[in-house]
Every structure is written in C-alpha cells, then in structure tokens.
Fold:
Amino acid sequence: MIIGICGGTGSGKTTLARKIIETVGRENVILVEQDSYYRNLADMPLDERRQANFDHPDSIDSEMLMNHLKRLKAGDSVEMPIYDFKTHTRCTEVERIEPKIVVIVEGILIFAEARILDLLDVRVFVDTPDDLRFIRRMQRDISERGRTIESVVEQYFATVRPMHHEFVEPSKRHADIIIPERANTDIGIDFICTKIREEVGKQLKTRKNYTRKNEE
Structure:
C-alpha cells in the first residue's frame, strides 16, 4: 500500500505522516519525502540556484521518485537522495530504504504529477490556512535552511504563492480524505491507521499461508 499525503508548504504533512507512523509502528511503515527528490542544481552558480522555482513540478525528479515507489512496492530496496537545502544540491551520500508493507510519500506536488498519483492507494490532503503555512515556512527556512526574512518573503511572492494556487490547491480534488488544520485530525489519523492495520494484517496472513504451503 502506498499512501500519499499532499498539501501546501508548511501545512503539516510531515507531522501527520510521523504521527501515523508512531501510531502503527515503524516496523511495517516507511516514509518517503518528495523534498529528497529535488533536481540537483550543482551545475548552476549559487545565485542562480537561489532564484530557481522550487514549487513547480519540473523542480522534482518525478521519474526517479516514481521508479523508487514502484521498486519499494515490488519489494526492492532503493537509494534515496539526500538534498542539501542550503546549497540546493544533492549530497554525495544516499539513504538506503528497505521495503516495508506500507509506504507513506509526502510532498506538495505529489498529486500534481499523474504518474505519481496513479501509484497511490490512499490520497490525503492536509488543508491549512495560508497565514499558518507562511509562518511555519518562515520559521523553518530561517532556523534550518539559512534563509533571511527578506529572502523568504521574496520567494513566497515570486514562486511559492502563485505555484500553490496553480498546482497544489487544484490537486486537492484528487484527495480521498481532506484533513483540515486542527479539526478532525484525530479522526483522519484513526481512519488512515485503520487502513494500514488492515493492509498489514492481510499481507502478514498471506505471507504466513505462503510459508505454511511451502513447508508442506
């Protein structure tokens, strides 16, 4: 099972994903973040990298993300890129991800790419007001990514806000579940966790029957 969690920047996608994993247990669930699949801009001068539009679907290596999700679903491990948001480049190191019964993939643009959308068994959209998302983004970018207030505001008006309205917000129509910020969050988590437990139980039962049949 592949569960997609979408929503605007700062909407709480990663927080939701981690709450789900904590609830059902890490032994059967892995998290794949779309942010890890930003294209490598190492061949561009740093000033040009900073001006790039990171909120357009073309900024994501969707081909690699799609292939990795397919391989994980098929039971194969993958080497997920590690992205450096301060330099806008990929690190030389990678993170090896082993397959598990359930994959959660989260990102602002996963519903905007048809090939990724088609791989998702459950589609969740986290719907959060613009002002909360902007404040969270500013806090994150300043504390974790070395940005200034001026650069965050400039990027928000130049690309973040227009791309949200062009790609992210319209993709909400593809969601199976829409979780409003701070409203019905527990209900949404309970529903998703129930689906995960059902899938895990089904897969474990299938494996047990397969093992028993081979032993006979």
In short: The helical segments are 13-24, 46-50, 62-73, 114-117, 130-144, 149-168, 185-215. The mean pLDDT is 92. The longest strand covers residues 89-97.
